[in-house]
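step 4 of 6: structure.
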Amino acid sequence: MSHTKKYTEVALHALKEKGYRITKPRRLVVEMLNTSDIALSAYEIRDRLEAEGEKVDKVSIYRILECLEENHLIHRVLMTGKVRKCQLEDEDHCHLNQADHCHHLLICEQCGFIEEVHCPGMNRIVQQVAEDAQFTVKSHHLEFLGLCQKCNSPHHKKTAAN
Amino acid sequence: MSHTKKYTEVALHALKEKGYRITKPRRLVVEMLNTSDIALSAYEIRDRLEAEGEKVDKVSIYRILECLEENHLIHRVLMTGKVRKCQLEDEDHCHLNQADHCHHLLICEQCGFIEEVHCPGMNRIVQQVAEDAQFTVKSHHLEFLGLCQKCNSPHHKKTAAN
DNA sequence: TTTGTACTGCAATATTATTGCAATAGTAAA
DNA sequence: TTTACTATTGCAATAATATTGCAGTACAAA
């Protein structure tokens, strides 16, 4: 689900706490991701902003995304492959300086809708795998591909969410 | 671990069964992936082949990778992001026409070494998530990032596997 | 061998991402 | 408020990655 407008300010404020400036381009990008139910690539963000009459250079968008990602305010969706797609963290995941970020995503192949989910048993699996393979696991990323409830229903219309 | 040389023939033969031709470029690409402990991008494959005195056009490599991927002989490593990296399936995973392909990968951030692992509890998690979110899960992808045993040891040398 | 066509290689082009630098605009302090 | 510092942006150029169309090649079956 898309975040509240207020969350944009929360995210920007978190950045400011760390010494970053709150600029118009940053606000626009965060706001855009904030209100989108689907992940967006850098170019998609630029195009959507342009459609709204806001011009932000693609280079700036890349740099803004990099900044947001470094500070764990967004993360990439990997299944979709070639483009760098991002979405805001869930509110309860939004903690700067948080060490272990694990992302469990449901991704609808039909409409692109993305939702974060909680996976109760994952910790145990992580521990088990790490032990078996003598591997130090620092983070993990789990994505489920399939059909969301809406697209799965017999009456679904083929529209992209948001 | 890298696959046996014989496995290259197994993979190529699996393709032939499906009506594909066994060509020199295909054999070279499969062989290259076969003997590499780390995932490779299209351009990396081309460069390595060139270093061996074998010339295969990048376009052909893209098309070969596409073919191999469609037939589940290789799959992409997503965590590494922007490049399309591939590696051969584990032998016991190599079944054409297999419906559900789930990839559980250990990825060493230091040396790039990649290993497939078995995750005993995953099925239950998949079912649980699907039920909770009313989502039809068709496939999933799980990747662990961290340090392999070798790179984690105090005596490790910073070299790329293979 | 011969023959049909799957496949490759080349050229051109599209898409995505990065770098350096001058101009701009947040922000803190005066 | 105004000033001054500098983080950040936008532009231009370029690099890296990926795709398309088509003519020529080489697999594989007969």
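step 5 of 6: annotate
 - Chain A has six helices and five strands.
 - Residues 21-24, 41-43, 58-59, 62, 82-84 of chain A lie near DNA strand C (CB under 10 Å from a C1').
step 6 of 6: archive
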